[in-house]
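Example 287, ligand NAP.
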Amino acid sequence: IRLVMKKDYILRNGLVVPAIGFGTYKISDDKEGEDILVDALRAGYRLIDTATMYGNEKMIGRAIRRADEEGFAKRADVILTTKVANEDRGYDSTLRAFERSEKLLGSNIDIYLIHWPLSEGIATNWRKVNSETWRAMERLLTEKRVKAIGVSNFKTRHLEALAETAEVLPMMNQVEFHPGWMEPETLCWCQNHGVLVEGWSPLGRTRMFDHALLRGLAEKYGRSVAQICLRWALQHGVVPIPKTTSPVRMKENLDIHDFSISEADMEAIDNMGIAGESGLDPDTITF
Ligand code: NAP
């Protein structure tokens, strides 16, 4: 399915989510990291992605408060996403993990995601654990402690298993998504069920940059390879969340609304074959 590019999406429960977010994996939990995030907020990012696993929630909270105090990004306009770490899966531990994250962030959490599913082959009770974690997420939503809940790295079998016991389906699924890695089955399931897909490592963490097809298209459209990757995600109805430490690249990555990749070139990218994948497979992750 190819959806038309938008500047915002509306989740099933009405929450408006920007079409491009900002990733923070490997951005450090110190003043340097804080300055990077302040730059990103100044550049115009309003959807911020972190996770307990990234160990930088404290700095994220400080940067968001600073941007609010300095007046260029009101807290109410920023959508802050964080994720339950794998060791915190389960009902009680998810609720505890949520409170720990809130404390570190010094702020409310807007979107809360399950970072990774537990999978068949890793644990026999994988369905039960995912379903219990989800029950805690639903409670947080019902109690209005979050604005939206979702998952990350869930393939269709994880989503279908979850749907058997869920009262509400995830509103979002954040998965690896870049040219060379698009998991059409997951994308299709999500789009058919009203689950917004966010694309992590949308630049393949730079592994895409030397690909001949993408370089050729970058030249043809007068854009960078990064912009081709991000625009391709947008034209698939996927919200890319690129990470960069550079203010110039922050702007470059946002500047993708004034050109369009042709249908034929979209297809060429779709069919380029597997490339640049992280190798992080939800079915084999044991950490
Ligand atoms: P990415 O965004 O695909 O790539 C980041 C790399 O690309 C950095 O090395 C960055 O370097 C470089 N870069 C960014 N913009 C560029 C540009 N315009 N030109 C040239 N180089 C550029 O990789 P990622 O950080 O893995 O993924 C993005 C976010 O997704 C993460 O930060 C994290 O929030 C999320 N994520 C989630 C999961 C999950 O399991 N849910 C897994 C992985 C990632 P500089 O910083 O030097 O610019």
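Summary: The chain has a mean pLDDT of 96.
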